[in-house]
Amino acid sequence: MKPVGPSIPMSQPEFEAHYDALKREIDALEADLAEPKARKHFADVRQRIEALYETLRENHLLLHTVLENSAASIYAKRKDGRYIFLNRGMELLCNVTREQCLGRTDFDVFPLEIAQQYRSNDVAAMRTGKLSESEEMSKTPAGDRLLLSKKVPLISDAGEVQGICGISTDITDLRRTERALREAVETLQRERDNKLLNVEAATASIAHEVRQPLGAIATGGLAGIRFLGMMPPDLDELRAILNGIITDCHHASEVFDSIGGLFKKVDHSRRPVDVNEIARGVLQSLHGQLRDHGVATETELASDLPLIEGHQGQLRQVVFNLVHNAIDAMATTTDKARLLRVSTQPRDRNTIVVAVEDSGPGIDSGRLNNIFDAFVTTKANGMGLGLAICRMIVQRHGGQLSASSDGKTGARVQFVLPVGLVDTAQARNVSH
């Protein structure tokens, strides 16, 4: 008579003991046989039974070895959820024993929330009658672990679902690895995008920065032609215009040098720099624009300002941009004087401060934190690259660039630079 449902599998010792008992019964029956022919037939049947047993024993041993040495958690349950088998892998993973589980349900062994998810997935697999996969949580001595559980219903010869068999694999570390790889890919993608942005910014910055001295050269050239047409020509004015053109040509060359130096891994062109000299030179080169825009200038350049170790062309570009931006900022100012103030001063023994202030409309406080980002601009037709490049230059020199404004009465942009460890007297001779 076949059992109604799956029975609890026998262990290897139980299997051997059961066979020995049956063998003793067969021996007793054989002893009772009197006919030689019947005894011979019985011996033949015994031999076939023993051959079948040996095959079954080897298969049972192989299956037992595989199940017990599997790293996965393998188990079988009746339809009502009672365990009829679990391997060593499940004992280790779930911190349970066979004695705790066999004949009991998940609700007898595990916390309620764990048992509910196990039972829900068991019922779903038995309802569909097919292999199902689900992710389940398990509480272990090592903490919560994520399991990938594959469950298949146990079906009788009559086609009735009698239970469930499952294999659960710990995928916690795999998920962590997948997450780490995904984050690494995202990081690489961001770095790639940033590099592309830097290339675009560098290209656009060259065009942006060179356009200023080229525009000044073109303006000077037109003015020169106009003065040549005068009778007699104003030679002093022409001389001043030509000197301005020469200065702007040098400025354009410095732009290329400074931007090129920004993207080198090693900059060998640093030397002692007098920031006061840079400020005076910038104001002199922009004298025409300051005059044309009606901007008055004030300077407060510290006489005892120490030299810094840096790239003169790049730092000149920073001061030039800040002054030029201040001139542009005051273009719409009509209700008060247009005043530009440039100052330098030691902040402490190790740093100096360079500041450019204007009397324009100021910068909205909500925009102060991002005006140094690439492609952010306060100008109607600006490209938003000048201040981004300025910040890069200042940071390359170990300094900081910042801005302050109340949004109504002008703005102050300043940068702080560390003082270079140079011989001041000797360095001033070199710089001149």
TrEMBL record:
Reactions the enzyme catalyzes: ATP + protein L-histidine = ADP + protein N-phospho-L-histidine
SUPFAM superfamilies: ATPase domain of HSP90 chaperone/DNA topoisomerase II/histidine kinase, PYP-like sensor domain (PAS domain)
Domain Histidine kinase intervals: 205-421
Principal EC category: transferase
SMART domains referenced in this protein's UniProt entry, alphabetically: HATPase_c, PAS
UniProt EC number: 2.7.13.3
UniProt entry tagged with the keyword Kinase: yes
InterPro entries noted in UniProt: HATPase_C_sf (IPR036890), HATPase_dom (IPR003594), His_kinase_dom (IPR005467), PAS (IPR000014), PAS-assoc_C (IPR000700), PAS-like_dom_sf (IPR035965), PAS_4 (IPR013656), Sig_transdc_His_kin-like_C (IPR004358)
NCBIfam families xref list: sensory_box
Name the UniProt record assigns to this protein: histidine kinase
